[in-house]
């Protein structure tokens, strides 16, 4: 068993029977009161961020996570299929584990999957992906107010709000965490 003095940014702990990744740790000693650790952590199951106060010396359970890079192969009705590039082992993850990030994956995309005791527990795309625009309505002349956007369809079938100057065939960078347009890429 580990104690709160072992808490460090980036480790995974079991808190309330769920895995959490530690985002920040702050040791506080307020005046004549007992010291404590203020910990900000991200739930690896649902992605929510929480804060908790641990007493100094309190026991915690540190989990060992294994991180591997996988290549996205394809998707069927309810699963996403991936292959490890070194061993060519294939795994599949259900829609619930992938979540909204699945909308920005294209075949061949490299992703990171975290495993706990051989079981996949967390999936992560790179923060930005580059996608080709497959369908874009023409910009309406005169509608050039600052920040004007239009919905465009990218190669994964997802609709992204992009500026009026984006046309079919353009390549754009999209933030996978928010689904927002970032910039047009030069081809």
Mean pLDDT: 86
Helix count equals 1
CATH class of the largest domain: Mainly Beta
Structural class: mainly beta
Biggest beta sheet summary: 6 strands, antiparallel
Say what the CATH topology of the largest domain is.
SH3 type barrels
Strand tally, please? 16
Domain module tally: 3
Query: What's the CATH architecture name of the largest domain?
Result: Roll
User: Roughly what fraction of the amino acids lie in strands?
Assistant: over 45%
Q: What is the percent of helical residues?
A: under 10%
Q: Which helices and strands, and how do they pair?
A:
Layout (H helix, E strand, L loop, with lengths): L1 E2 L8 E4 L2 E11 L7 E8 L5 E7 L3 E5 L2 E10 L3 E6 L5 E5 H4 L11 E7 L2 E6 L3 E8 L13 E6 L4 E5 L7 E5 L5 E5 L2
Antiparallel strand pairs: 1-6, 2-3, 2-6, 3-4, 4-5, 7-8, 7-10, 8-9, 10-11, 12-13, 12-15, 13-14, 15-16
General description of the model:
- With 187 residues, the chain is mostly beta strands.
- The protein has three domains: 2-63, SH3 type barrels (Roll); 66-124, OB fold (Dihydrolipoamide Acetyltransferase, E2P), CATH 2.40.50.140; 128-185, Nucleic acid-binding proteins (OB fold (Dihydrolipoamide Acetyltransferase, E2P), Beta Barrel).
- Helices cover 2% and strands 53% of the residues.
- The strands form three sheets. A six-stranded antiparallel β-sheet has the order 1-6-2-3-4-5, with no helix packed on it.
- A hairpin with a 5-residue loop joins strand 8 (79-84) and strand 9.
- The termini are far apart.
- The mean pLDDT is 86.
């Amino acid at each position: 068993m580990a104690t709160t003095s072992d808490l460090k940014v980036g480790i995974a702990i079991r808190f309330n029977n769920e895995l959490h990744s530690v985002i920040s740790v702050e040791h506080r000693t307020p005046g004549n009161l007992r010291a404590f650790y203020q910990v900000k952590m991200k739930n690896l199951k649902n992605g929510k961020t929480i804060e908790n106060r641990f007493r100094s010396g309190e026991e915690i359970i540190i989990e060992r996570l294994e991180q591997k890079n996988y290549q996205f192969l394809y998707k069927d009705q309810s699963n996403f299929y991936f292959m490890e590039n070194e061993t060519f082992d294939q795994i599949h993850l259900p829609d619930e584990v992938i979540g909204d990030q699945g909308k920005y994956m294209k075949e061949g995309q490299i992703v990171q999957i975290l495993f706990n005791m051989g079981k996949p527990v967390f999936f992560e795309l790179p923060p930005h992906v580059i996608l080709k625009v497959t369908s874009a309505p023409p910009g309406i002349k005169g509608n050039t107010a600052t920040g004007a956007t239009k919905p465009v369809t990218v190669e994964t079938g997802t609709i992204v709000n992009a500026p009026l100057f984006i046309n079919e065939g353009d390549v754009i960078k999209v933030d996978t965490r928010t689904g927002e347009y970032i910039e047009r890429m030069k081809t």
